[in-house]
Amino acid sequence: MTAETRTGPAPKPTGPLSKIDYSERIPNNVNLAGDRRLQRALEGWQPKFLDWWKTLGPALPTKDVYLRTAIAVGRDGWAHFDHVPMEEYRWGIFLAEANPEKKINFGKHLGEPAWQEVPGEHRADLMRLIVVQGDTEPASVEQQRVLGNTAPSIYDLRNLFQVNVEEGRHLWAMVYLLHAYFGREGREEAEQLLKRNSGDIDSPRILGAFNEETTDWLQFFMFTYFTDRDGKYQLGTLKESAFDPLARTCEFMLKEEAHHMFVGTTGVQRIVEKTAEIMNANGGVDDIFEHGGIPLSVIQKYLNFQYSVSMDLFGSEQSTNAGNYYSSGLKGRWQETRRKDDHTLLEDTRTMNIIEDGKIVEKEVPMLSALNLDLRDEYVADCANGVRRWNQALEDAGLEERLFLPHEGFNRRVGVYANHHVSPEGEVLEDAAWEAQVNQWLPSAEDRQKVADLMQPVYEYGEFAGWIAPPSTGINDQPVEFDYVHLAEEGLA
Ligand SMILES: [Fe+2]
Ligand SMILES: [Fe+2]
User: Fold this and answer.
1) Which ranges of 328-427 would DSSP assign to H, the alpha helix?
2) 134 C-alpha to center of ligand 1: Å?
3) Ligand lying closest to the C-alpha of residue 167
4) Which of 119, 283, 316, 453 is deepest in the core (most CB within 10 A)?
C-alpha cells in the first residue's frame, strides 16, 4: 500500500503564531520567566552545555557562520539567517503551538484530553523515551566533530555547522522536558546526557549507530540521509504522544530536521553527479579514485553500511514494549491521525519476515506486537525516494549502473536477522560465504582510506572539491559562492 491510499490528506495547520523571547538568557516560548525554579535549574545546566560544545562540538576554529536561528514556531517566517559566532548561537526551548482542545488520538485513552502532566504510572517509560531520543542529538555532533577540517567547500561547511547547532538545540529540547516534568531524576538524566560520549569505551552513547565514527564526508552525507531520517521517524511517533509537551517539542524539532535530510539527499546526489561525470570522462570505468572521484561501488558500500546500522535503530520487529507504549498513549504511529483504521489495533494482524531453516519466510503476527516494524516500513519507503533521485542522476548521465537499498536483513545486529548473514540481494548465507564477500558489500579499511585521501579541505568561496558537484542553489537565496563561513585563521577565507 502506498502512503496516499493508507492515509488521508494532511491536516490544515491551526493556532496562532507565537514569538520567541530573545531577551532571556535562554530564548524560549514556554514562559520560562514565569517559573523561577525551572529557569534557575536550566541556567545551571547552560554553562555545562557550553563547556560540552567547546570540548566536543565542531573542532575547526571559526569567526562566524551564516546560521539559521528559530525566531517563531509558526507556519511562516519561523527562522532568521545571519552570520553568528557559533559559541554565541542562541540555543533555546521552542515548542509548537498548544492546542487547548487537543485529544489523544490512539490507544486505550483514545478521545480523552491530552496530558499536560506526566501520569505517575508512565513516568519511568516516558523519561526513558526522552532520554534515548535526547542521547542521539549531542552524539551526532560528537561524531561529526572533526569533519570541518576536510570540508569540500565553504557551502558544505556551513551546512555541517547548521546541522550541529540544531542537534545541540534538540538536546536543549529534551533537557527542558527532563527538567520541567521529571524532577530530580530528570535533572540527573540531563547531566548524564553530557557525560556519555560517542564511542567512549566506558560511557558510550545509548544506541549503536551513534557510536560509529563519521570518518569522512561521504559518510556524513549518508548519515544525514539515513540516520537523521531515522530520527525523523522516531520524532514522528513522539509527536503523536498523549503527553502534550513532548508532542509539541517533537513537532518543532521535525521542522529543523527537514534541512538535515536535505543536506544528505543533495550531498549524495552531488557526489553521484560528479562520479558519473568522471566515469564518463574515463570510458565508464568504476575505479575512479585515481581520477579524484569516488567509485559508484564504494558509494553503494557506504549506503549499505549506513542503511543497515540505521535499520537497527528501530529495534526488534516484534516488541511488547512498543505495543504497550502505543496502547498506553506514549508513542503513536507515523502519521497516526491520518491512518484509516480504528487507532487501537487490538484485532489487527500483519505479516513479517522471519528466518526458518535457513530461509526467509513470512509469518502472521498481531499488529500491536509489530509496531517497530510498522515504523521501519515507513522509513524504508521514504529512503527509497532519495535512491530514485540519485539513480535519475545516473540515468541523466547516460550510465547503466544503479544504486539500491540492500535487503532488510543485510548486516543487521538487531531483530530477526541478528544472528544470520544475509546478502544485499536477500540470500541467507553461511559464515564462509559471507566472509568471502563482505568486502564487496561494506566499506573495507582500504576503501575508507582511499575516500579519506580525497578529503582535502577547500576553503575558497565558491570552489568545490573534485569529488563533488556544486549545488544548484545557495542557502536562503544567497549565491553558492557566498561567504557562508569566516574561518578564524588569518589568510583563510
Ligand atoms: Fe535532531
Ligand atoms: Fe538531525
Assistant:
1) 371-396
2) 8
3) 1
4) 316
